[in-house]
Design brief:
heterodimer; A: Cytochrome Bc1 Complex, Chain D, domain 2; 52% helix; B: mainly alpha; two-stranded antiparallel ribbon
Chain lengths: 255, 612
């Protein structure tokens, strides 16, 4: 028996929806957020109905059961049932959506707050557009010394940073659970790999209180490290972050 | 020193400014400006006189909230924002239409098919009313700038006095050429006259493009100022100020986008006419017109993501701050909306092509592939708009162990987006190829070999795009990551151009299955054309806001600070509402343009009204 087209469309949508849940939530154990699956399913639905309606004949077949339900006198009972159930379902859904809950409101956190053009760091006015890591050039000029500096940076990191950002730099340090938002995962390709070293320098030295006013209030428990570390220690830590994760700082020059 | 230094350099500009100032005062009334304004004007005269005696150019003024007039309780930022946006939408449309009208006229001259000439004329007819509206809105924008932001306008007009003067002259030239081009259409027909008409079309495009380039230089100066020192003191070289860092990236992006936008608006016009057509003949005509408009929109849409990416990369290159604000900072979520709208454009353009296959009796051979194209398009679309920073509930946050999603997170950065959009473009081209093939039967003996080469070309191209995206996007440093987008684009170009060229050889001397049934297309397809125009409009508004908004609290980045009470970045919701209201106003005006274009051909013969 051939499955009616309307049912086919519904089955395809259910298949895709439960496919997402099965793959992400069950197999990969990485929950697919509700906010995202709503967006995904909206456009999957659009795609399915595009395929089912580009042709007049197929469209007629698709809508035939709906048309029959609305127009066919013999389907009066089912029509009345549907006409009661649909508004009730919509009303119930709306009520359920609007009901106050104890859940904290969703947050649109942006990973990278934009830096200012200049900032006051270690008592100097620094132009962040032009600022460069003074040790970066040693990578080619004196690899041995460069390696030593990275090791020094690692020591600084382990003494100061790993409590939150983790000994694997994955944002899962011993204190991470107590923080919201959680500390940044430097292994992620979307964090330090996207940024120039000057950005990291600004973010580390000025910490949470140094964040810009735009889209305030920012929430960050990052300390103001210029109060605790020396300038060269910060640069060394930055070099360690890139070295350990295997990422390269954002630059505009080929190597 | 806060007085405007406008109109000092060129006497002609002074005249220009005087006319506008008088008009502005006429509109607002001296009373409304009040004593504060007259005192301020007097003070400014003194300041300007001092400045004239001292250095040739003064630094950018340092403003306070008191330097921004409040008029009739109007929110000056929102007023300027809406008028600038409305002006830009109409300007994009009226600059684009002559470009493809010119090309269609050439096609008509080459093929000697009068339908093309008639269509070109109808397109330009639609743009005539829009042209007047562009000028009205542009004039209003200028008034608003002078009234609400006198110091900013003064500073900019000091630097761009010459180019503003030539802009005014070019505007006259544009109007003159446009009116001769339009009203002389039926007069300049045949032989040398047609060539003269074509020459007018070319002139119209040259003048229009120059106008756009001039205006672009003013706005890109505000984003990437050049020709001034750190205090904003102008060095006297207008060209240096015009040729600023972001000028060409904006020029390229706007030129391509305008064509796509113009195509979508005339497509909406054709859809409107199709749905209101009274006869089968009319339906067939407007179906054909809609197809051509959609073709223009798609042709320009395909390279548009690359032009946009180039612009964004240049912005990032110019300023880390602007780059991060743009895509990683506060505007990141508007970029998700942008991604959704761009995906919507691709989906509606493809849907229109699929519906259009119903015009051909031979389409059945290809429609079986549509579902696979749809799967790839939707799949790529989902990657295209997957955000890097997810909106998570606390429960989800706990389940994931942090805001980073190990599978979806990597889809949130540009290499994944670039790969997805290239795939979407290639499959849109495939839809188009199937559409072209639908009504043809190849007669060459090597048709199977030709098809096999095309399959190989598509497969190799897609694999290369995936490799470039994954390897360079995730396993090399940023400079290669960004650079990999170029071979990705080139691969897409090679696949599309190669396969369409091969197709033209395969289908040389091909047979038609049956004459195409123009007009045999469901009304739904027309709504896809409307969706295309609406999505383009909204998209331009949102992205225009972002482009302007990334300057944040600066009128001219790092040179002239916005001292007004509005020197803050509004919430995304507020910005989206302003753009949406502006888009609705624009759509209402476009419907008026469509209606007025129709009214000109309506005739009423009242009986007994006139003397016999």
């Amino acid at each position: 028996m051939r499955i009616p087209r309307l049912l086919q469309a519904v089955l395809v949508l259910l298949f895709v929806y439960f496919g997402f849940i099965l793959v992400f939530d069950v197999i990969l154990e990485a929950v697919i957020p509700a906010s995202l699956i709503i967006m995904y399913m909206f456009f999957v639905t659009a795609g399915v109905f595009m395929v089912f309606t580009y042709d007049e004949e197929q469209t007629a077949e698709l809508v035939a059961p709906i048309k029959a339900m609305v127009e066919d006198p013999s389907k009066r009972l089912i029509r009345n049932i549907v006409f009661v159930i649909v508004p009730l379902a919509v009303g119930g859904g709306t009520y359920w959506q609007m009901q106050p809950s104890f859940e904290a409101p969703l947050e649109l956190r942006t990973i990278h707050p934009a830096p200012p053009t200049t900032a006051k760091i270690y008592g100097k006015r620094v132009n962040l557009l032009k600022l460069e890591n003074p040790y970066r050039k040693l990578e080619k000029e004196d690899p041995e010394q460069f390696r030593e500096l990275i090791d020094e940076g690692a020591a600084v990191y382990i003494k100061n940073c790993q409590y939150c950002h983790g000994d694997k730099l994955d944002g899962k340090g011993p204190y991470a659970e107590g923080l919201n938002p959680t500390p940044l995962n430097f292994q992620d390709v979307g964090t330090i790999a996207q940024l120039q070293e000057s950005y990291l320098f600004w973010r580390i030295t000025t910490g949470g209180p140094g964040l810009p006013q735009e889209a305030a209030p920012w929430i960050s428990s990052m300390p103001v490290w210029q109060d605790f570390l020396k300038e060269d220690e910060v640069w060394k830590v930055i070099m360690f972050l890139y070295d350990y994760t295997g990422h390269r700082p954002r630059s505009w020059e080929h190597e | 020193m806060t007085g405007p230094r406008a109109f000092r350099k060129a006497p002609a500009l002074a005249l220009f400014g005087l006319i506008f100032a008088l008009l502005a005062l006429t509109f607002t009334g001296f009373d409304q400006l009040g004593p504060l304004a007259s005192e301020q004007a007097a003070a400014e005269q003194v300041v300007a006189a001092d400045a004239a005696v001292a250095a040739p150019y003064a630094p950018a003024p340092k403003l306070t909230a008191a330097d921004y007039p409040t008029i009739a309780g109007v929110n000056s930022r929102v007023a300027v924002w809406i008028f600038a946006q409305l002006h830009l939408w109409f300007a994009a449309f009226v600059l684009a239409v002559p470009i493809f009208v010119f090309i269609i006229e050439i096609i008509g001259m080459r093929t000697r098919d009068k339908r093309y000439d008639d269509m070109a004329y109808e397109f330009i007819k639609v743009s005539i009313t829009a042209y007047s509206l562009t000028a009205i809105l542009g004039g209003s924008l200028l008034f608003f700038l002078i009234l609400f932001y006198p110091h900013l306008f003064g500073y900019l007009s000091t630097i761009f006095s010459e180019s503003m003067f030539y802009y005014a002259l070019l505007f006259f030239a544009e109007s003159a050429v446009l009116y001769i081009y339009y009203y002389g259409w039926h007069w300049l027909q045949g032989g040398i006259r047609k060539w003269i008409h074509l020459g007018l079309g070319l002139s119209l495009n040259v003048v229009g493009t120059c106008l756009m380039l001039l205006a672009n230089s003013w706005l890109t100066f505000m984003m990437s100022p050049a020709g001034v020192d750190a205090a904003g003191v102008f060095g006297g070289d207008t060209w240096a100020a015009m040729n600023n860092f972001l000028w060409h990236p904006i020029n390229i992006h706007r030129f391509v986008a305008n064509i796509a936008y113009g195509g979508s608006i005339v497509g909406a016009y054709a859809a409107f006419k199709f749905l209101t057509a009274g006869s089968q003949e009319e339906r067939a005509h407007y179906d054909w017109m809609g197809y051509n408009a959609n073709f223009i929109a798609i042709c320009a849409l395909l390279p548009l993501p690359f032009a946009g990416y180039y612009l964004a990369a240049e912005m990032y290159l110019y300023s880390q701050q602007m780059g991060i604000t743009l895509m990683g900072g506060i505007f990141a979520w508007l970029f998700i909306i942008q991604a959704v709208l761009i995906g919507t454009l691709f989906l509606s353009a493809n849907y229109y092509l699929w519906c259009g296959m119903g015009r051909s009796d031979g389409a059945k051979r290809y429609t079986k592939y549509i579902k696979y194209i749809a799967i790839v398009l939707v799949g790529a679309f989902l990657v295209w708009f997957t955000p890097h920073t997810l909106v998570l509930t606390n429960e989800e946050l706990k389940a994931l162990g942090g805001p980073h999603h190990k599978i979806l997170g990597p889809l949130g950065i540009m290499p994944a987006k670039n790969t997805a959009v290239n795939v979407m473009i290639i499959f849109t081209a495939l839809s188009f190829m199937f559409y072209r093939r639908a009504n043809k039967v190849a007669t060459v003996s090597w048709v199977n070999a030709g098809n096999a080469i095309q399959v190989a070309l598509f497969t190799a191209g897609i694999l290369n795009i995936m490799f470039l995206g994954i390897y360079h996007g995730y396993f090399t440093n940023t400079v290669y990551k960004v650079a990999a987008s170029i071979p990705q684009v080139l691969t897409t170009v090679v696949v599309i151009v190669g396969s369409i060229t091969l197709d033209s050889f395969i289908y040389k001397n091909s047979k038609e299955v049956a004459p195409l049934h123009w007009g045999r297309i469901p009304g739904r397809a027309m709504y896809a054309l409307f969706l295309l125009a609406v999505a383009f409009t909204w998209l331009m508004g949102l992205m225009g806001y972002i482009r302007s908004g990334i300057r944040q609290h600066w009128h001219v980045l790092d040179i002239m600070r916005d001292g007004s009470v509005d020197a803050f970045t509004p919430t995304l919701g507020f910005a989206a509402n302003v753009v949406s209201v502006a888009a609705i106003i624009f759509m209402a005006m476009v419907i008026f343009v469509f209606w007025i274009a129709q009214v000109s051909s309506n005739k009423t013969l009242p009986s007994g009204y006139w003397k016999e």
